[in-house]
């Protein structure tokens, strides 16, 4: 289903996006060396509930996971890139951490992710991975707007990732959001310009470029959720929810 929001719903989406942004910013500042991932999940839960919102992950049980997810945020470390299940692990100096948060507030969802290195150590290649996903996200957003083909957005993202030398996995990518977390259209992280669905005002998209340093193959942890690079290499993931407007794209998160 592709959901087009009316102006009142887009205004509510802005509030949801601001909440997701604020929670992620707080969690990023509190995720330091020695922080337990279960504490990150607990803090997320407390802030979501205090805002009168709901996590989109607790009861999330898609066909590819061993659901329900049962936690309030995804915490992916180093070679984990997507759907990282919070567990009893204390962050170490130099860990590359991705926080991925989707929240529903007043019936509208926003979804965002950020990758960063914890502490002062800087593992080889970590900053380049993160920077590539951030640039790809910025270019994807810049390409989006009313009348634009979805393939133009995917092409913009993929051009940056490919130029940086990273393989691109197309199993998981961006997606539509609205009253639920995962909707059509799927937004692949590479594609052909001039193809696909024509973007319309009122459409919300979660764009999420993610890469693994030297592979495009994923493996799933025994927890049934956490997706890792098949080679054990570092990974990174950046994501924003945007709203297509009459004259472009607005970042909500």
UniProtKB/TrEMBL annotation:
| Entry binding sites for a divalent metal cation 2 | 111, 175, 208, 239
Q: How is the co-factor bound, per the entry? A: Binds 2 divalent metal cations per subunit. Has a high-affinity and a low affinity metal-binding site. The true nature of the physiological cofactor is under debate. The enzyme is active with cobalt, zinc, manganese or divalent iron ions. Most likely, methionine aminopeptidases function as mononuclear Fe(2+)-metalloproteases under physiological conditions, and the catalytically relevant metal-binding site has been assigned to the histidine-containing high-affinity site.
- One term under GO cellular component: cytosol
Q: Which cofactor does it need?
A: Co(2+); Zn(2+); Mn(2+); Fe(2+)
Concerning CDD domains, the annotation shows: MetAP1
Q: What HAMAP family does its record include?
A: MetAP_1
What family classification does the UniProt entry report for this protein? Belongs to the peptidase M24A family. Methionine aminopeptidase type 1 subfamily.
Which proteins does it associate with, and in what oligomeric form? Monomer.
Its job: Removes the N-terminal methionine from nascent proteins. The N-terminal methionine is often cleaved when the second residue in the primary sequence is small and uncharged (Met-Ala-, Cys, Gly, Pro, Ser, Thr, or Val). Requires deformylation of the N(alpha)-formylated initiator methionine before it can be hydrolyzed.
List the protein's name. Answer: Methionine aminopeptidase
Q: Which gene encodes it?
A: map
Q: What class of enzyme is it?
A: hydrolase
The family database entries (InterPro entries) matched by this protein are listed as: Creatinase/aminopeptidase-like, Pept_M24, Pept_M24_MAP, Pept_M24A_MAP1
Could you tell me the EC number(s) of this protein?
A: 3.4.11.18
Superkingdom is Bacteria
Q: Which residues bind a divalent metal cation 1?
A: 100, 111, 239
